[in-house]
Every structure is written in structure tokens, then in C-alpha cells.
Amino acid sequence: MRDASARSRTGLNANAGQSPEPADTRVRVSLQHLRSLEGRARKLTLLPRQPVSSVLNGRHASRLRGRGLNFEELRGYLPGDDPRTIDWKVTARTGEPHVRVYSEERDRPALLVVDQRMSMFFGTRLNMKSVTAAEAAALVSFRILDQGDRVGAVIFGDGYVSEFRPKRGRTAVNRFLTALERANRMLHAEAPRVDQPLFLNQPLTSVARIARRDHLVIVISDFDGLDARTGKLIGSIARHNDVILCPVTDPISEDVPKNMKLVVSDGELQVELDTGTTETLQRLSDFATGRIAEILRWQQTYGTPVLPLSAGSDTVDQLRRLMGLGATTRAQTNE
What we know:
Elements: H1 4-10, H2 31-36, E1 69-76, H3 88-94, E2 98-104, E3 110-115, H4 129-146, E4 151-156, E5 161-167, H5 170-185, H6 201-210, E6 216-221, H7 228-240, E7 242-249, H8 251-254, E8 261-265, E9 270-274, H9 278-302, E10 309-310, H10 315-322, H11 330-333
Parallel strand pairs: 3-4, 3-6, 6-7, 7-10
Antiparallel strand pairs: 1-2, 4-5, 8-9
Helix pairs in contact: 4-5, 6-7
């Protein structure tokens, strides 16, 4: 392809922004690291039937609708059949109880929306937020693969959106992970400043175009740059699809340290923030809590489950806890 924008949409800029790979995968992921996560969360599931304590369980405010149902046949009632499947019109007409038999659709395409903007290249305790997002996306892609569903993705940075239509099989997952590693490599302290950073609305517009209905859409982002249109896009997508929101935060946003001077930079300009002043501390706290509050409002309004992830904790253990499972054991970690 000669068209540069087309290459960005498909993630084909293989040499863009690459830098020597650091040994520490808490800063930048490698393809080998992403692939190594496959065995660590085998019990995770994104199917409708969830553990009791899972945030995706039906007893919570929101849940996964899951695959649709295909009508198979109408037959006579047999002992043990669910009474809720009885077709009362046919039963009344024939004088004998009849049930409608359905089978679950075997395929539900999934679309992973992964944020790799410079706002994600930040971490104070364990991982960069960009690493936590990449790890979570890799884990989910492996689970979708094991469920026999198609895997697609929308990966976006400050100046590009890469789209991958849902496809079935390990080749599709490997293609996604390769593009994800490439996007993560583009994040570094010397990255050129983008005049107009990409907000979440553009990748969500891509999602709305690809996932017309009956998709599983998982958005993994710090949700930087929300506006009124963002909520409308989320609501529109959730109307015909299952949508899971995974806000990625850093521990410092949950507990802004007092009496510290923080230097914040966009790559060219920088400003010093003094958290010793009550006004500055309050504004920083309000900024962090306000973003999460908006995401939780979407949960109540549109029924979108929220799986909050912290860059300060192990990604696998967080997902397992959110889905009602225990932390991984040493044996599971070494599988």
C-alpha cells in the first residue's frame, strides 16, 4: 500500500517508532511476553454463565447477553424439559404439551479496543498503563480464541487508528498481538509531540462501523479526553452489542500525594504542580474521580459492565478477581 493512512488503519507501519526493546516488560511489552500470558488465565471466561462473585454475573447491575439462540425444532414435551420452553399455542391446538428447542449460536465476534496513546505511557508502582492495557487485551484475545469466537481489534495511538476485522483462529490472534506490540513500542519519552492528540471518539466511531450488532466489544483505555459525544457513542454501540469497559488507572490517581511537586509534560512543554496547596490537590482529585464517575454513569445508563484495572497490580490476578476467581498460584504462573 502506498497510502500512508491506509497503512495506519491496518497497522502495517512495521518500522514506525521502533526503539531498542528494554528488558523490563513493565515499561514496554514484547511479543514473547504477550504470548506467554496464554496459560496464566485459562479459567477466565467471557461467556454469559459467570461465577457468583464475577462482576459480569446477572446479580449485578449489568451482565453479558452472550450469543443469540437459533430455533431448531418443535417437539413433544419430555420429562426433564424446562417448562419455560413450552409452546402454549401449539400445546392448546394439539392437546399435547410441546416445547420449542433452541441451540446457542456458535459464533460471537469480539472487538478489542486498546488504547496506546502517550497518556497511557505512565506508571508509578508496577506497570505503565499501556502495558497493563496490552496484557489485558492479550489475555482476553486468548480466551476468545479458546471459546471458538472471532477476534478483531481497534488499536489506537495519538496519531493513528489501526483496524482489524474479526477473524477466527490463532493467525488472527498473532496478527493482533504483533500489531499491539508495535503500537506499544511507539511509546517512549522522546516520541514527537502530536498537535491534535486523538480522543476516544475516533476509535469508537470505527467500532460503531465494524460492530453493527451481536459483537462483544471490550474497551481498554484510560478514557482520556471524554466529551458528550463519547457517551452517545458508547450508548449507540451498547444498544446492539455487549460492551465491557475497562478503565486503566495508576495508583497515584486514586490517592494524590500531598506536599509534593509534580512535573507534568506533554513532551515539549512542562509545568510544575504543587500538591501542597489545597486548591491544586482538590483539582487533581476531582479530575481523577470525575472520569471514573462518568464511566460508572454509563454503566447505570447503558448497562455496560465495568472492569477497572490498576497499573499498580498484576493484570492476571486483577482479571481473575473481577471474574470471581482466586489469584493465580505459582504452579499456574509457571504453566
